[in-house]
């Protein structure tokens, strides 16, 4: 379930941290947590069950200029896309959670206060296929996809698209998401195919992001943009990746997928 959220900043201060992903994630979690009891009761009443906090969101769409580690907004309106792995029937409830909310994006050095001016539900491009139908769908990341393998120190060695292990890591993580939404057997038996394509001769573009910047818990992660993914799987499994995001750190704004086209097989 995909939404476009439009924000308008109030006040004269328009300087965002360039590593805004974690603060934005925290603001989204705060909105969900404030409505958590009512949200959980709604889901229980409708019989939806697991996974209601699975979400992913895109980079901010805004006019800005970079100054050091800051983004200076040139216009008070910004927007982003957010996907929730929930049935369409919960659309109005989700819209109600975000409507007219205040969102602050801040770190120790900058803070911008926004109000949600609009939340628009967008059509699911996979809706015509049946849940168990094998489909092929093309996506491009609208935020960096992070894939990695943990080393002996339990830290991630980040991988680049084109490396064989990048695709293996992506599919492994995809199975984990299926297991979390279904069960181990379903995840183990799922047919999952992922292929990577680049734009002509252009290489994937790397981005280094700092999570929890300016704190003792800060973590640097590396993700990649500027390539396409072709996925082949049952519709219900493709939807999990579309809604929950590809790779790691999805709730921190990584791995948001924008569909290009879809074909039933």
TrEMBL record:
Gene that specifies this protein: cas6
Family per record: Belongs to the CRISPR-associated protein Cas6/Cse3/CasE family.
CDD domains: Cas6_I-like (cd21140)
NCBIfam families per UniProt: cas_cas6
Start and end residues of each CRISPR associated protein Cas6 C-terminal domain: 136-258
InterPro entries cross-referenced by the UniProt entry: Cas_Cas6_C, CRISPR-assoc_prot_Cas6, CRISPR-assoc_prot_Cas6_N_sf
Protein name: CRISPR-associated endoribonuclease Cas6
Keyword RNA-binding (UniProt): yes
Pfam family, one: Cas_Cas6_C
Matches recorded under Gene3D superfamilies: 3.30.70.1890, 3.30.70.1900
Organism superkingdom: Bacteria
The entry's keywords: Antiviral defense, RNA-binding
Transmembrane intervals: none
């Amino acid at each position: 379930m995909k939404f476009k959220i439009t924000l308008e900043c109030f006040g004269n201060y328009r300087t965002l941290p360039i590593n805004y992903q974690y603060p934005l994630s925290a603001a989204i979690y705060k909105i969900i947590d404030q409505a958590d009891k009512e949200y959980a009761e709604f889901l229980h009443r409708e019989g939806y069950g697991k996974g209601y906090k699975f979400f992913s969101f895109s980079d901010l769409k805004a006019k800005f200029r970079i100054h050091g580690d800051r983004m200076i907004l040139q216009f008070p309106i910004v927007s982003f896309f957010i996907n929730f792995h929930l049935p369409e029937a919960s659309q109005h409830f989700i819209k109600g959670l975000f409507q007219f909310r205040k969102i602050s994006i801040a770190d120790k050095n900058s803070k911008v206060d926004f109000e949600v001016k609009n939340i628009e539900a967008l059509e699911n491009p996979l809706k015509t296929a049946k849940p168990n139908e094998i489909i092929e769908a093309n996506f491009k990341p609208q935020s960096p996809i992070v894939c990695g393998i943990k080393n002996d120190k339990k830290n991630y060695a980040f991988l680049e698209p084109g490396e064989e292990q990048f695709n293996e890591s992506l599919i492994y993580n995809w199975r984990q998401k299926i297991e979390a939404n279904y069960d181990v057997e379903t995840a183990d038996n799922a047919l999952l195919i992922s292929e990577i394509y680049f734009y002509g001769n252009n290489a994937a573009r790397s981005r280094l992001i700092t999570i929890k910047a300016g704190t003792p818990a800060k973590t640097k992660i590396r993700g990649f943009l500027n390539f396409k993914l072709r996925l082949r799987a049952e519709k219900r499994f493709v939807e999990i990746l579309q809604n929950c995001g590809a790779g790691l750190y999805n709730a921190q704004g990584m791995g948001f997928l924008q569909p290009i086209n879809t074909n039933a097989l």
